[in-house]
């Protein structure tokens, strides 16, 4: 990626951080980098290409980097195992969304088409293959894993996991007794504070077990 294109995409990320994704336009971007809108088309041909480039720029933070520690990306140096690579990618995606709360919506709405975006998906493909998942099942499991990770990050960033104006007990109290039998069964767990980091780790452990199970079924 050229230095000028990187500058343009970083400026687009900055606009989204400051004013939201809907504020990102070719005109606003041209003003930010100090060029005419027409000059941008040498680097991004239209708004769709700009959004795809922003996805790639976000996902570039998930890729391995040189040195012992890849920061938000996958550890490099000593070769990590397939499950360590999946975990590192998931943690990096969550970290990116915590820094850029609007990012999850963009990641959900755009396909992985830029080189950096495709490389991030390839990390998952290769990890699943090395885990022993049948190649025919790899694309489906990649979609499942990506949807979970981005969905968790989106829900966390949007406040969906927070109790809102009422705690779980208060919400249940708005309905007549017996209206929520499922809630009644698990109510004492709903009233506990939620540690989202611990929950994320537990979910990743479940995903690892799912991958191992898919590999075992493929070997039968």
TrEMBL record:
Q: At which residues is the DNA-binding region annotated?
A: 25-44
**What Gene Ontology molecular function terms does this protein carry?**
DNA-binding transcription factor activity; transcription cis-regulatory region binding
Q: Does the keyword NADP apply?
A: no
Start and end of every HTH tetR-type domain? 2-62
**What keywords is this UniProt entry annotated with?**
DNA-binding, Transcription, Transcription regulation
Give me any GO biological process, just one.
Answer: negative regulation of DNA-templated transcription
Q: Which SUPFAM superfamilies match?
A: Homeodomain-like, Tetracyclin repressor-like, C-terminal domain
- Mind telling me which InterPro entries this protein's record contains? Homeodomain-like_sf (IPR009057), HTH-type_TetR-like_transc_reg (IPR050109), HTH_TetR (IPR001647), Repressor_TetR_C (IPR004111), Tet_transcr_reg_TetR-rel_C_sf (IPR036271)
**Name of the protein in question:** TetR family transcriptional regulator
Q: Which organism is it from?
A: Streptomyces griseorubiginosus
